[in-house]
Structures are given as structure tokens and as C-alpha cells.
Description:
Helix content: 55-70%
Amino acid sequence: xxxxxxxxxxxxxxxxxxxxxxxxxxxxxxxxxxxxxxxxxxxxxxxxxxxxxxxxxxxxxxxxxxxxxxxxxxxxxxxxxxxxxxxxxxxxxxxxxxxxxxxxxxxxxxxxxxxxxxxxxxxxxxxxxxxxxxxxxxxxxxxxxxxxxxxxxxxxxxxxxxxxxxxxxxxxxxxxxxxxxxxxxxxxxxxxxxxxxxxxxxxxxxxxxxxxxxxxxxxxxxxxxxxxxxxxxxxxxxxxxxxxxxxxxxxxxxxxxxxxxxxxxxxxxxxxxxxxxxxxxxxxxxxxxxxxxxxxxxxxxxxxxxxxxxxxxxxxxxxxxxxxxxxxxxxxxxxxxxxxxxxxxxxxxxxxxxxxxxxxxxxxxxxxxxxxxxxxxxxxxxxxxxxxxxxxxxxxxxxxxxxxxxxxxxxxxxxxxxxxxxxxxxxxxxxxxxxxxxxxxxxxxxxxxxxxxxxxxxxxxxxxxxxxxxxxxxxxxxxxxxxxxxxxxxxxxxxxxxxxxxxxxxxxxxxxxxxxx
Length: 517
């Protein structure tokens, strides 16, 4: 007979650390922007979840949680949303509710892949997870080739690549790379299948919503939202085909709750600005959005905790090089693609010379990072054969080290970017980020790994029917959007709220301007 299984729901600390971690990352993301910036939030929240879930098997996979969490939260960074926020400030009733509705859609499309990426390491075997590294790396290399070779070549030959201001070329390159890898291997593995589902889904969404139906969320801004709609659909189809209901559950719950939070944060900002205080309200919006997204993914993963069997402690550690890869991806890759923007900012503001000893400042930065990469990666590979003393022996200790190293790397890097010319309004950004990071440091050092749960193979609870879950989430969404609209209308009426340009979506006062696509 199997030994009795005991379980208690995650403590309040699980939600607190995840919410604050994603809030810190989202606040920093606001300074760096786009897909690369969103990775910061994905790393911190995924590590927090792994460390505070009480799952010994998740402790062992902290680096994988960090990497796939980063990738999952990155994709939504391609969507334009500032004009949508402006609609909610407009004072035009139809534009306000349209703005909140679109903010929900954008928030859903951003958070859903985040929920997928965070849940994936918890729901598939190490064999499956590590098999994804090669095809994913091939796509990374193909995208580098696109940036440095393909795009310059096409532009030099008269190609206009700004098709509806979308990432269509990146989606095409990923699709072509996956097909080539299938041709080489003569089979489709889990990683290649994931890439195909995402890339094909992107093209279906873009093709149907934009090219066929002619829908545009915020003309003349880009239509990556349409491709992302198809991409999320592709992720859900992948979950169905690969029998991953827990991942699908995390995708949907994180998406819906994240979308509700995305719109709700904008409503709260419009309430807060009535205080007439002079501060960085946009940063408060960003950090509030991160907090809500963190609570969303924590709620989803709390459901996954109860519904996935415990991985065997003696599961072979196949492809150990992927552990080094994941750590290096987080500590070196994610930090580099964000912090490399700092030298450009310093030069642009005329605080540092662009050329030093005949080389651009950016080149010196790259050289410095390359040396740092060697100093980190070589000992990590050495650790696979013979332990390096600085690396903790426990899985929880390794997770703590990774979390704190990445956290303060980005907090300090973000402060470096803002330091020159900093004003008192930045205290609500860098000051709050620093305070939250200090609290998270204390909490991670004192509480990570304290909760331990004993499992047997029979424990995993059935995943709730997705149809019933969707009904509840849709009802909650409609209620939240109507409440956002009603609160803003009650405060401002037909008055423009300020703190943004005036944008009206429909009617004779419409400010929409269409441009060439």
C-alpha cells in the first residue's frame, strides 16, 4: 500500500513572494521595454513559485522554471498598448469601455504564454523538457541571423518589412527553422512540435483577424495582438495534443486573471491620479500590473501543485549541460539583452563619450560581458564534474542563489540606467523596486523551502473541466470590465482625464489615423 499523502494549500507567502517578484520585474521592464524586458518578470516569478510551492521536485528544476518562465512572459512584449490606455483616459464612453476591453485582451495575450511557460517545467518529464533545448536554440540562432544578416539584406534590396508593424518575419523564420529541423531529423520531437504550434498559430491568427477580416485594434499601431491570439491558440492545441491539461489550465487561468489585472491596474491609476500628487504614475501602473500578474500566475500554479504527480527523486539527470544552459540563459542572456541598452542611453544623454580608445562604448560593454560570461560558464561546467564550493549543495540553496544573483543584478543595472539625471519622481520607481527587492531577499533567505509536502502517485487531483472554468472566468471578465468602465465614468464623466494624449476610437471625434501597411 502507498503511504498516506498529506497536503495543505500554499501559504500566504507563496502569493506574496510571487506577486512582489513579478511586480519588481514588471517595474524594471517598464524601463527596458518589449520582449526582453518582460523576461525579467518571468524569471523572478517562476523561481519564486518553484521555491515556495513546497514541491521537492520543483526545487531541483529551479533553473528550468526560470528559463521557461522568462520565455513565456516575453512574447506579449511585442504588443502595443499605450494608445489603448489613452482610450480609457479619453472621457468618451464608448472609447473608455473599448479601451478596458482591449486592455483585457492584451493582458490575456501577455499573461497566458507566461502561465504556459511557468507550468511547463512542472508538468513534463526532464527527458521531454531537456529535449526542447536544441530546437529552441536553433530558433534563437535563426533570429540572430535574421537581425544581423537577413533583415539588412532584404532592406538593401528594397524590401519593406514593416508589414502591419508586426513580427511576421520572426514568425516566418521560426517556422522555417522548425521545418528544416524536422527534415534533418525525419521526426517531430516535443520542442519542434511546440515551435510549430506557436508559429503556425501566429500566422493563422494574423491571417484570419487582420488579412481576412481586416481587424485593427489601435490603428495605425501594430497588429501583433492578432498573431499573439493565434499563438495562444497554438499553445492550447499543443496542450491538447500532448495531453497536458494542467498546462492548459495554467495558461487559461493566468491569461484571464492577468487580463483582468491588466485592465484593473489602469482603472486604479485613473482613481489614484485624482489625488493630484506629482509622481511617476506610469511606474505605479507598471508595478501594479506586475503585482496582479504575479497573483494571477500564483493562483494558476497553486492549482497545478495539487494536480501533478511528484517526479521520482532518482529520475536520471539526462542532458546535464542543459542545467548550465538554463542558468547562463538567465544570468547572462536575459541580463545582457536588457542592460546593453544602458550604454546607448548614457551616450544619447551626452553623459559618457561614445568612442573610447577608438572603439564604441557599446563594444567595450560587449567585451566586458564576454569576459564575465567566461568567468561564469566555465566554473558551471566544471561543477558538473567536480563541485565548486560556492555553489550550494542543496537544491533550495541553488534556487536562492540564482534568485538573489539575478534579482540584484537587474535592480542595480536598472538603477545604473536611471541614476544619471534622476529626479524625486523616480523614488516611486527605483526606490520602491529597491525596497521590494530588499524584502524579497529577506523572505527568500528565511522562508524558501520551509514548506514540504509528502506525495504519493495517487494524489494528483483531476483537472477541472475547462469548459466550466472558462464560463467562470468569462463572467468574471465581463463584470470586471463593466466595473472599470463604471468607476472611471463616475469620476470623470465626459472629461478627458489627462496624463495621456487624447485618443478617441469611434465616432465623429475619432482621432484614429490610418497609415500605409
